[in-house]
Amino acid sequence: MELIPAFPDGSAVPPRVLAALFDRRFTEAARPSFEPGGQLELSPPPRASVADLVAGLRELLVHAAALAASAGVTLTASGTDPDRCCAQVPLRLTTARYLAMQRQFDRAGPDGRRMMRLTASLQVAVDLQRGPAGREQWLVANLAGPALAAAFANSPRLDGASAGIPGARTRIWQGIEPSRTGYDGRHLDPADPVGAYTAFASAAARLPIPEAAAGAYHLSTLFPPVRPRGGYLEVRYLDAQPPERIATAVTTLAVLLLVPTARRAALELLQPGIGRMPSTRPGRRRGRSSSSWGRRSRGWRTPSGC
């Protein structure tokens, strides 16, 4: 879960300010880290049930808010920074990784900077099952993405004003080069999911830093809506959620991906839309669901300041 910190005057908060407040109990439970724009990320360990996970996360959110308040900082659970443009939010993590990533994203336009500095998400990790069940999970997690992102959209403001749509964060992701994000469905192939993702990863340009020569590191620089992470799937397309909606969002994903009858019913509804798009892989066809990520809506306001 990612949160957007701000001082009372609306100014951005350097990560060191919050990091200095973390006590041992919070650090061990939340495993906190920071995103490039200073967003606070909480990464609690896996839990055996959704109820346990949600209860633990709510406790962490209360703890985080109390720690932040002691320095006059508020933490906002929103998919986009509601008050600032990225010119007001400097790149806080100036490592070679993030500088190279910013340069790479800049080639396609300003949305890469917006994503890095202004967005926050609720990422849900779900155990990946073996065999056909895992294939079903992968397809449902991806194909249900547009509907779930819309249902849980929580980013109506950007650049200090109305974005004109409830899901500005999703539109930002659609504006980033698809060779690295897969928001055009290029990483999906129901007949060969492993081959499709391998082709997607192989085609993406490696960041011009030494670490990117390693395959595992290169995979960490890809940001599809759902990212395979060994024994689990990392669902990345949900906006950061207010505490009262976290349980619904996580439960919805858990049911769709872990309950066989629900997963197969969802696949029956979603899979007929696959195959409508020509493949970037020779001899293959890829596709996306009829409720695809699609293109930017006409109501999208192009923000300034990046």
UniProtKB/TrEMBL annotation:
Gene3D superfamilies on file: 3.30.590.20
Region (Disordered): 274-306
Keyword Nucleotide-binding: yes
Record's keyword terms, sorted: ATP-binding, Ligase, Nucleotide-binding
A GO molecular function held by the record: ligase activity
InterPro entries linked to this entry: GCL_bact_plant, GCS2, Gln_synth/guanido_kin_cat_dom
PANTHER family named among the record's database cross-references: GLUTAMATE--CYSTEINE LIGASE, CHLOROPLASTIC
Name recorded for this polypeptide: glutamate--cysteine ligase
